[in-house]
Amino acid sequence: MELYLDSADINEIEEAFQLGFIAGLTTTPTFMHRHGITDVDDTVLKLADIVPVLQIEALGNTCHEIHKEANRLLDLGLDTERTVFKIPVSIEGVKACKMLKDENIKVNIHLVYTLQQAYMAMAAGADYVTPLVGRLQDQGHDALELIRQCVQAVDHYEYHTKIMFSSVRHPEHVRNAINLGVHTCTVPWKVMQQLTENTFTTIGTQQFTEHTQLMTVRVKEIIRKANPAATLNDTVLDSIVQMTESGLGAVAIVDNGKVLGVFTDGDLRRQLKQDGKTILNKRMSDFDYKPPITIDGDALLYDAVEVFKEKKVDNIIVLENDKLIGMIDVQDLIKMNLIV
Questions:
Q1: Of 86, 95, 277, 282, which one is the catalytic site residue?
Q2: Which residues are CB-contacts of 280 (< 8 A; sequence separation ≥ 6)?
Q3: Of 131, 186, 226, 297, which is the most exposed, with the fewest CB atoms less than 10 Å away?
Q4: Which of 48, 44, 47, 46 has its CA nearest to residue 58?
Q5: What is the residue-averaged pLDDT of the chain?
């Protein structure tokens, strides 16, 4: 099934065709009007340079006017091999289709709402016949049955026409198009972007990503640039400043390059409750410290997760060659969905 983009938005057209496999573009005067386009000819030429195949309107009240308009557009410099002229179905429209096909010019008879209209277009040699599914369904008609009948007619009578499923409103329409065996489906970019989405896929991808991080990313790769540390001679206030600037809830207490322990925001609250604000001027040497929980910077995140789970702490000191290089907070791993 050919996949076409249905749009007149230059930005999304350029973005969509970066996919590299979209067969072509369908556009309409309504789309162009909606996007404030006034120089249609100039826009058509720009689009022709971007897309593999461009399907554009050739309008007129008679078959001769339609034929003349198609040739006028070709004279602008369009390639007959890469241009398809869209003509609303009518007696004049199918007459124009036959005239253009006799000149090897490609035609799409669209705005089709009945099998009879589709048949006339096929008989006239149209390259594409395009029922408008969304619009038909809006009016309470069985548009999918019409599509099925059109595909069946092409197959049964061996017409060289491609049935194009258009007026796509949601991803389910694309599934319908595939199941019905249509030859082409033209889809708005908003809907096309949803075709690869699925909640289970998202969850599975997230799990794979998380597990890959656990087994490949090293602790030193995720530590923050800030490395909060205080000496025994620093005050509690100095340590608070360090915690605030780093965004971490703890500060490493270092003496002669050796990490003695950790002073946390929890320690601060307990001391404030016990001694009041006078503790702000106390030295870090005035407190006792438990041996710090440490991890080597080259350890995997898997190892860090295991330490957090086992030790039930909020912060782990990160060392490299026994020297402090930073600290990881349990919230860092929670944000990465590595700890629930």
A1: 86
A2: 235, 236, 237, 240
A3: 226
A4: 44
A5: 94
79 shares its domain with 183:
yes
Does residue 340 lie in a domain region?
Answer: no
What is the pLDDT, as a whole number, of residue 84? Answer: 98
Residue 4 CB-half CA count within 13 A: 27
Q: Is residue 33 part of a domain?
A: yes
Distance between CA atoms of residues 93 and 59, nearest Å? 9
Q: Which helix (H) or strand (E) holds 112?
A: strand 106-112
- Do 118 and 7 reside in the same domain of the chain? yes
46 is catalytic: no
Of 174, 197, 220, the residue at which a domain comes to its end is 197
What digits encode the pLDDT tens for the residues 165-204?
Answer: 999 999 999 999 999 999 999 999 999 999 999 888 888 9
State the CB neighbour count (10 A cutoff) for residue 225. 6
Q: What is the pTM of this model?
A: 0.72
Residue after which a domain boundary falls, among 197, 212, 227: 197
